[in-house]
Description:
Elements: E1 8-12, E2 15-16, E3 20-29, E4 34-45, E5 49-53, E6 57-61, E7 75-78
Antiparallel strand pairs: 1-3, 2-3, 3-4, 5-6, 6-7
Amino acid sequence: MLPVPANEVIYCGGAFFGIVGTRECFSLDLVSNEWTQVGNMTEAKFHAGASAHPTRGLIQTGGFTAVILPGMTAVESTPDGVTFDRSYARMPQALGSHCQVGLKK
């Protein structure tokens, strides 16, 4: 579960026309049923791995910035789509279109 109100959903990134990544993050207010742009990631990306963390929020790994470029090693989190943390160790290899899940140890 993300540490955002239960009546809100966020997404970050994606691709325009399937070839160019975007940095934008949007929030859907489930009460008003309206999308609002709330922030921008530090890098454009699509096909990133994504999972939810109870305190760090949305965590994304890897992805692509454009179709012809290799995968990324970046790891980024946001609790709200506005503030971003990139202080994590980079992935050991560049990936995109990979699966990712959050596990409790």
